[in-house]
Amino acid sequence: MLAKMFAEGSEGGYFMNPGDVDSTGAYLIDRSPTYFEPILNYLRNGQLVLDPNINPEGVLEEARFFGIESLVPQLMEIIMSRERSRDMMPLSRRDVINALILTPITAELRFQGVNLAGSDLSRLDLRNINFKYACLHGCRMVGTNLSYCLMERADLSHAQLEGAQFLGVRMLCANLEGANLRGCNFEDPAGIKANMEGKNRTTYNRVVWYIMIHTVLQNNNHPVILSPSNQINN
Predict the structure, then answer these.
(1) b/e sequence 174-192, b meaning 16+ C-beta within 10 Å
(2) CATH topology classification for 91-216
(3) Quick check: 21 pLDDT over 80?
(4) Fewest beta carbons less than 10 Å away: which of 21, 76, 117, 186?
(5) Which residues share a beta bridge with 28?
(6) What is the pLDDT of residues 133-144, one digit of tens each?
(7) Is the distance from CB of 131 to CB of 153 less than 8 angstroms?
C-alpha cells in the first residue's frame, strides 16, 4: 500500500493518490502518527522497536493497512507474549471488587484455581465464594469474611488472616503453612463447623484446631488467641 501510493502510473502521476500536500510539499497521510512511527523506523533500519507505552495491536493494524507483511508475524508474537504474561499475573483487589459488583447475589462466584497471590483483600465480604485450588499465598485478608467459602486444597501459605471470619468454611487439605491466624473466628452460633481435615500442620499450623472448631472458646467475650506454643503432637 505504501509503495503503491508513490509508484508512478502508466499515464504519469502516482499510481494512487498518497494524500494532500502541504505548503512545503510534504504529503499528508491520514493515519495515526503514534502507530506509524515504529513502522517508519522499521523501514529505515529493518528492526522493529516498540516503546513500552505503544499498543502493538495498533501498530499491527497499521502494518496490515500499508501491506508490510514482514512485520505482521513479529507483532503477532509480541501481542501473544503480552497476553500470556497478563494471564499469569495475580488478580488485584480491584479485580476482585469488580467481580463482586458484577456478580448477582443469587449467582455463585468462582475463583477456582485463580492466582490471587499477594493481593490485599482485607475487610472484604467474600462469603460463599469457591476458592478451590486457588493460590492465596501471601494474601493480606485481615478482617475478611470468608464464611462458608470452599477453600479445598487452596494455598494460603504465609497469608495474613488475622481476625478473619471462617464460619462453616471447607478447607480440606488446604496449605496454611506460616499463615497468621491470630484472632480468627471459627465459631458458628448455628452449630455449623469448619472442615479443616487434611490441612497442613507444619510450624505455626500445629495449633489446637480441634479445640477451636469444636468447642466454644471465649475469654471475656472475645475469641481465644492461640499462639505457636499451643501445639499438639502429630
Answers:
(1) bbbbbbbbbbbebbbeeee
(2) Pectate Lyase C-like (2.160.20)
(3) no
(4) 21
(5) 20
(6) 999 999 999 999
(7) no
